[in-house]
Amino acid sequence: MLNIELYRPIMEFLSLFLGTEVEIILCDTQKILHVENSADPNHYPGAPLSEMQQALIKNPECQDIPYNINYRTLSAKGEKMRSATMFIREGDSLSGLLTINQNVGELIHIRSYLELLINGEQEHNVLKPSGKNSSPKQSYEALTLSVTEMIDKVLEEATIRFNSPPGRLNADEKLSVIREMDSRGVFLAKGSVIEVAKKLKSSKATIYRYLQQLEKKE
Fold first, then answer.
1. Collapsing DSSP states into helix, strand and coil, what is residue 95?
2. Which of 18, 54, 69, 133 could form a disulfide with 84 if both were Cys (CB 3.0 to 4.6 A apart)?
3. Counting Cβ atoms within 10 Å, is residue 209 exposed (0-12), middle (13-18) or buried (19+)?
4. What b/e readout covers 116-129, taking b as 16+ CB neighbours within 10 angstroms?
5. What are the angstrom distances between the C-alpha of 64 and each of 40, 59, 111?
6. DSSP bridge partners of 103
7. Is the dihedral of CA 46, 47, 48, 54 positive or negative?
């Protein structure tokens, strides 16, 4: 039998940190033992396991894994939840579950609203290609302003550190600059290699060679 007092402070800690929109449930293989921020009137100490909890216990794929993370469930009110369950074992046998259910309904509404603000409600883009043989173009520039600013920022720091303009840095100094840009995620943006090569007065092949050197060192 699970020691409720052992898990109670952990659940209280998670509840305080994650907030009241997050339900935390401790149960054995038969019933619920303790609940923080109950999101369902059927979730209370002594209540039987939900269908989802029973399904997890019976699922053969869950017999040898420590947890199941980011699966979707619904609350009693039909609200969308993001859930995670840790399987508590004593020796080789399953003794209980610790489940976290986060209400993401409001976040989904916010995401939909943001997508509406970003994309608009209707399509009236006269530049959008049409026809079967037309190839769609990207809606945004490949290299965003923020990435360009990041490149310039790193080069400004390098100019001060090495007391030399970007185009006159030696190979080791350029490698140091590439390492810093890579750590800031510059090269995740399409077109960044071309932009960096232009700023450093180098070729694309040279920039790729620097990146390969960094990869080998890592």
1. strand
2. 69
3. middle
4. eeeeeeeeeeeeee
5. 29, 10, 36
6. 81
7. negative
**Residue 80's domain is classified under what CATH number?**
3.30.450.20
Please report the DSSP string for 27-91 in residue order.
Answer: E-SSBEEEEES--STT-STTPBPPHHHHHHHH-GGGSS-SEEEEEEEE-TT--EEEEEEEEEEET
Clarify whether residues 16 and 82 are in a common domain: yes
pTM for this prediction? 0.54
How far apart (Å, rounded) are the C-alpha atoms in residues 157 and 61?
52
Indicate whether 140 belongs to any domain: no
- The pLDDT value recorded for residue 137 is 38
- What's the structural domain count of the chain? 2
| Cβ–Cβ < 8 Å for 24, 100 | yes
pLDDT at site 187: 84
Q: Is the pLDDT of residue 2 over 60?
A: yes
pLDDT in tens, 136-157: 433 334 455 577 888 988 898 8
Domain that holds residue 71: 4-106
Contact 86, 98 (CB under 8 A): yes
**Residues 9 and 102 grouped into a single domain:** yes
Q: Are residues 96 and 150 in the same domain?
A: no
* Residue of 95 and 73 predicted with greater confidence: 95
Inform me whether the pLDDT recorded for 9 exceeds 90.
Answer: yes
Backbone dihedral angles phi then psi of residue 142, each to the nearest 5 degrees = -65, -40
